[in-house]
Structure formats: C-alpha cells, structure tokens
Amino acid sequence: MTTGPGRLSHEPDELLLGFTRAVRAAGVAVTHDRAAGFLAATAEVGLGDRRATFVAGQATLCSSPDDLGRYAQVFEAWFNSREGLPREQPTTPSTPAPTDLAADERDGDDPGNDSEDADLLAATASEAEILRHRDVAAMTPGEKARLAAMFATLRPRPPLRRTVRHEAWRRGRVDAARTLRASMRRLGEPARIEWQHRRTRPRRVVLLVDVSGSMSGYADALLRLAHTMTQATPGTQGTQGRAARGGRVETFTVGTRLTHVTRALGSRDAERAIAAAGDVVPDWSGGTRLGETLKVFVDRWGRRGLARGAVVVVFSDGWERGDASLLGEQVRRLRAVAHRVVWVNPHRGKDGYEAVQAGIVAVLPHVDDFVAGHSLATFEELMGVVEGRSRA
After folding, report:
1. pLDDT per residue as tens digits for the range 249-297
2. What is the homologous superfamily of the domain 204-387 according to CATH?
3. Would the pTM count as exceeding 0.90?
4. What is the DSSP string of 86-113?
5. Is 241 exposed, middle or buried (0-12, 13-18, 19+ CB in 10 A)?
6. Which one of 159, 216, 316, 320 is most buried, counting C-beta atoms within 10 A?
C-alpha cells in the first residue's frame, strides 16, 4: 500500500499479526486463536483508536498479570516505530522522528511518557473492572471478545471431601500405632507423640447449563465458565504435597433434551471447545422442559453415581413451560443424592428481581444456594460458593 502522511504502510492485518508475533517473542503465550481474537476485537473497536487497540490486545493476548508489563512495552515499541496503526505518521518537522522517540524512551528522558503510560494502564484497569460487572447478555461483540480473554483470571478450585483414610500430620488426633512403634524402637523409652488426620480429596462438580431460548444471551459465557472449570487442575495438593485425585467437572446442557458435553469441552483451547460443544448440542435456543430433562439426568446419571456426593450447579432462569411441580420434584430427588445443589439464575443479581417464576418457586425449597450469574464478577463469587469458601 502506498505510504505517506496519514496513510498506512502495511495492510492492517499484516501489521497486527506482526505485533502478535512480537508479543509472543517477548515471552507472552500468544496462540493462534488468541491472535485471531485480537484481530476480531480490533476490527470491532476500530484501528484508529489507540487506547481501544491497546485494551483489545491486552484482553485477548494476555493471560496472566505477568504478561501485562511485557505487552505494554511491546505495544509502545511496535507502534511508535511504525507509521499508521494506531498512530499516524508524523507530518511536521518539529515532531521527533520515530527512531529518536524510541531512543528517548530507552534513555527515560521523557517523563511525560511514563505519566501517559500510567494513565493508560489505570484507564485500562478501570475499564476491565467495569467489564467484570457488566451483564453478559447486554455486551457488544467487542466487549464479549474482551470478556472471553478475562475468563483466564478465574481460579476455580474444587470442593474437598474427607476420606476414611488417615495420614501423618503435625496436629489432629494421636496416632497411637505410630507412637507405640517409635517407643518400641527406643526400647520402651518415651518417644515423640505422632499425630494424624483424615485425608481430603476433591469432590466431583456437575454443571447443568440451560441453553434454551430465554438463556441464549448467557449460554456462550456459561460454557466458557464450564470450560474454565473443566481445564482447572482436577486434583489439589495434599497435605504432604501429593496431588489428590478423584475430583473432576462434568458438564451437561439442558433444554428440550439432555446432552453430555464434557468430552467436547476437553480441548485446552476455549474457542475450539465452545465450537465442539455447539456441534453436539442439538437444541440451542429451543424450548424449555427442565422438569423432563432433569428427570432424565437423575434417572440415568444421578442415581447411578455421577451426582452422588457431588456439588451440582444448575444454570437456569427457571422459565419452565412444562409442569413446575415436576421440576420441583426432580430437584428434590437430585438433592437427595448430591452433596449440595447450587442454582444460578442470571437475573438474581439485578435490581428489582423477585423470585416469582413458577419454576424458581418450585425449586427453591430444595436448593442449598440461590446465586446470581450474569457477569464475570458473579462467576468469581460462584467459584467461592462451589468450593465452599462462601455461602449465598
């Protein structure tokens, strides 16, 4: 493309993809899907907006707080040394040349740049915080692209259960057998008292995601949440540093039928996992027969052991077109075999909401927790409820 004042020296996608490669070379784990997400987000916010471009790249390319500093440095170096995106080529002789500007930044002679970067990072943090509390269903495509990257900030941990076995520990109850053996090795002389406590193992988590028409605005975000929980480390570190096993996340979608999507969500790449789940779910944005589909789950999966002793999380607004009493009865049956039942309603945290829907009224007596689920902030709170750190 022809260059000149106010003109682009490269095709936009070529320049932006070059930037993603530079970010990867700086040590940020930029995958192909994250790069594609960056291009899509930038197309939504517009290439001429420097701040929006910075935020779009930060949200889609960075996956941890450690990446933010590297990303900011590469962004400044890359776009300050190239004309066009998102800063236009200088048109006046009094403006420092790009090479001089880069040298000034390396020498730290321009304190204004530090102030500008600090203001930019502060504004970015503020925008991210606002996005965390936004209703998912009301977001624009660009905001949803940024939100998808922010799911990496969630740190789900499985709930724990105690086993019948014991292990050595620094306190708890006296381990008489080990204490006696230690005394015998000392020919009957008193020995140090040994202690023990019961081991813990991760408890299974079962997610039931409503994908009916009334939940269509939240279905993508909820499946991303399920993918994040599925990809989290299934075991937790035991008291002696050993990884405890046994906990895993099982995900089903409910609507007009029940679909097991755990295998589809097995890919570590979120976009591929969501696409795979979409391929196996036949009733996207369809009707709602929660009572019937929950009956299928309890009959085929719940009583057979998958939900027994598990934390079962139901994501639904409770809009039941069928018999609400049937829905209440199935949740009662589910509660009888599960360790806890958590009902997540996207409208729960909104101003003026009242639990008057027939389906919600029917299930409330049989659930342990009734929580909100319409934003990233509420998803983070849900992690604490599932783990058992907080109760709604």
Report:
1. 999 999 889 999 999 999 888 888 988 998 999 888 777 789 999 999 9
2. von Willebrand factor, type A domain (3.40.50.410)
3. no
4. SSPPP-STTSPPHHHHHHHHHHT--HHH
5. exposed
6. 316
